[in-house]
Amino acid sequence: MTSEPRDVEAALNLRTFIHRLRQAGKLKEIRDAHWDLEIGALTEIAAESGEGSALLFDAVPDHPEGYRVLSNVLRSPESDALALGMPPDVRGLEVVQAVKGRLQDLKPIPPTEIGESPLLENVAFDGDVNVLKFPTPKWHADDGGRYIGTFTATVCRDPDTGYVNVGTYRVQVHDENTVGVWMIPGKHGDLITRKYWARGESCPVAIVCGLPPGMMTASAVGIPWNMSEYDFLGGLLETPVPVIKAQKTGLPVPAFADIVLEGHIPPPEQETHEEGPFGEWPGYYASGSRQAPVVKVEAVYHRDDPIITGDPPLRTFLNSETHKYIRSANIWSAMERAGIPDVQGVWFPKQGRFVVTVAVRQRYSGHAKQAGYGVLATRDGGRDVRMVIVVDEDVDITNVGEVLWAMSTRWDPRSDSEILDVAASILNPRLSPEDKQRRELTTGCMVVDACRPYAWKDDFPGISGVSAEYKAKVRAKWADRL
Q1: Fewest CB within a 10 Å sphere: which of 97, 347, 362, 432?
Q2: Domain membership flag for residue 240
Q3: Are 289 and 351 within one domain?
Q4: pLDDT reading at 1 higher than 50
């Protein structure tokens, strides 16, 4: 494993994470904001500011004091680092490189069941269940209702193998003991649920609505089938995830979560409910509304002064970015395994989730385009990506200004572009209604070679500007006056 500093407690305990954000000046506490649109509007306004603070809402109208909502959970470099088990001062490609090193040596570590948990401070079963007591926001004006599940983990167990899956799916509140869960077809949770339905059974499930941030890191990225996200996160953090068994289903749930809903998903022929619409992560209402599965909630567990974790999808350049570190690291490692040499970094720019940037040190003609194609051959880079931009190693791929500068000065659209078909998600707003109906889920992607032309790269005009080395010396000399 790598030897970079660790800070795993904040990744596994929501209250510790909030404390660390408060210490870092990245938490704003707000009272009296209404659950009906106002919390959602303040969340988006704060995200647009670029300041990066999480928002902790209390004294929400119609709900008890102390019943809270945390939004913009992963909106800053500090929060991203904490969620990945790193000190809050680690940044950019340094995080990607650290994650890449961990993933290369990753040995899955199963969770550890502990005897006591603050999650058991408040427990309600059956007729005492009331999901409506939580201050669930209606995030957007055109949403079909209130969504308690926007930064959640849905836990279920494969009936054939016993493998435990933890996935992130949106969850809408319908009434006191009924919530809707919408899973994209083919996701692991969807496949497991259908196995139970094929047997005529309801699927046992636990929904974690006050989620430790490390669990979002694991549940929102692609993990191989039959590897539990608990085991993956334990390996990533080099420590087992502490869990307790939910009492109705026996499913393991994070011991230091804030809220858990437990129950069963009945087969659709027994019960469904209209779900949606909901403003999703591309920034559009692309999935409409439909009859969707429900969870009949049989137990609710929560800490004193419980916290809903909320991360309503905004436009892509405003959304949380923590997933990009793992996706970037996975793509980078996959290209190295494929034998593509001298890849210097992979990055998803905040300004466009559908864009991937890659830096290479060119070694031969066609090397840059090979790197671009290599991105599309990976699980994390081969779906919904609209553009892959490959640049030379002297370009800082975490700086979108530098990437655009390289494109505008080194890229010829006629000779340095390729357009290919790639797989698309049902949430991709560019898919036509006809394509969605036919399940023709593909979209175009452009591979952009924005490197110096290899044949004459040594004769390419030199860069005007101050060298990085000299800048560092000047910054050090003038630090107290800059």
Answers
A1: 432
A2: yes
A3: no
A4: no
